[in-house]
Amino acid sequence: MANAKADAARRPGEFELIAQLFAPLSLKAPGAFALTDDAAVLAPRPGQDLVLKTDAVVEGVHFFHDDPPGDIARKALRVNLSDLAAKGAVPAGYLMALLLPDWPDLDWLKAFAAGLAADQAEFGLSLMGGDTSSTPGALAVSISAIGFVPHGAMIRRAGARSGDAVFVSGTIGDAGGGLAVLQGEAGAQSELVARYRRPRPRLLLGQALRGLASASLDVSDGLIADLAHLARTSGVRLEIDASRIPLSAALRAVWGSDTAAICRAAVSGDDYEIAFTAVPERRDAVLAASARSGVAVTEIGRVTAGEGVVLLDGDGKEIALPRKGFVHF
């Protein structure tokens, strides 16, 4: 505890910290006023709707204490950008609440801010405000992301209809594999660990799916769990072909490619891919959107009348799953 208090003593006070590390992240957003005011202003864009999203990451739940600080910052931002991606939105800015225990020192905070700066440059948005506070508990970062989408064009969870095809971007289970490696499971796949620590928000794909996808959401709690949300909101049943769920070579090297591995991947969280539905007549347009965005898309199932989501084997029989995905409470 003494060392932790010494570390805290070497970091600036709240307002010095904001001025030194976080105000520079706001300079490309005039309405942020260099973080010198109590609120920010974001001018509306003609013909556009605002898309708003808040997600938090917490030490011990979403990241490890000794994860690189830049990766923690990037994950906190990217999990929010992933939701904007699934809605077809273009990022514009974000607000951040940073809850700091005693132990992060100035060097840690500089690396954290550098991670945010790198992602701001990559994804084209700026910090617009927020809050910093001490906490006696775990480190936590809560981010509210702000994006724009053409009026009425946001892709909702509701909208899937019987007869639609079900698609997913990228590969499934990689982040779960990375988490397993970090928890000591046999295997040393740096690619999987990177997928867990630094998810890739599929922004270009999401924007290309506007007008094509009938329903969409990002895969955060696990493919099956999140598809169940889409099914419930749309009032339909989703039938997923287990053999078509895309697994990366890196994950297959650690978990294999049998039914057990596929089921494990399908209920693992933190993938931050886009799962969506579209009418079969738009299949070619979906594949063209995939090619334009540089993100692979795989058709994995179909929408039928009914409710819920089921995972089917090669004979069309339901595969029993002990759990559907990550449960927060």
> Can you name the CATH architecture of the largest domain?
2-Layer Sandwich
Q: What number of structural domains do the residues give?
A: 2
CATH topology of the largest domain: 60s Ribosomal Protein L30, Chain: A
Helical/strand content category: alpha+beta
Question: Measured on Cα atoms, how large is the radius of gyration?
Answer: 21 Å
CATH top level assignment of the largest domain: Alpha Beta
How do the strands of the widest beta sheet line up side by side? 6-8-5-9-7-10
Give the arrangement of secondary structure elements.
Blueprint (H helix, E strand, L loop, with lengths): L1 H8 L4 H9 L25 E11 L10 H18 L3 E11 L5 H18 L2 E9 L5 E11 L14 E5 L4 H9 L7 H8 L5 H6 L6 E5 L3 H12 L2 E5 L7 H7 L3 H8 L6 E6 L4 H11 L3 E8 L3 E5 L17
Parallel strand pairs: 2-3, 7-10
Antiparallel strand pairs: 1-4, 2-4, 5-8, 5-9, 6-8, 7-9
Helix pairs in contact: 3-4, 5-6
Question: What would you note in describing this structure?
Answer:
This protein starts with a helix and ends in a 17-residue tail after the last strand. Helix content is 35%, strand content 23%. Strands 6-8-5-9-7-10 form a six-stranded mixed β-sheet, sandwiched between helices. A four-stranded mixed β-sheet has the order 1-4-2-3. With 329 residues, the protein is α+β, with helices and mostly antiparallel strands. The protein folds into two domains: 2-150, 60s Ribosomal Protein L30, Chain: A (2-Layer Sandwich); 165-312, Phosphoribosyl-aminoimidazole Synthetase, Chain A, domain 2 (Alpha-Beta Complex), CATH 3.90.650.10. It is globular. α3 (69-86) runs parallel beside α4 and α5 packs across α6 (190-197). It has eleven helices and ten strands.
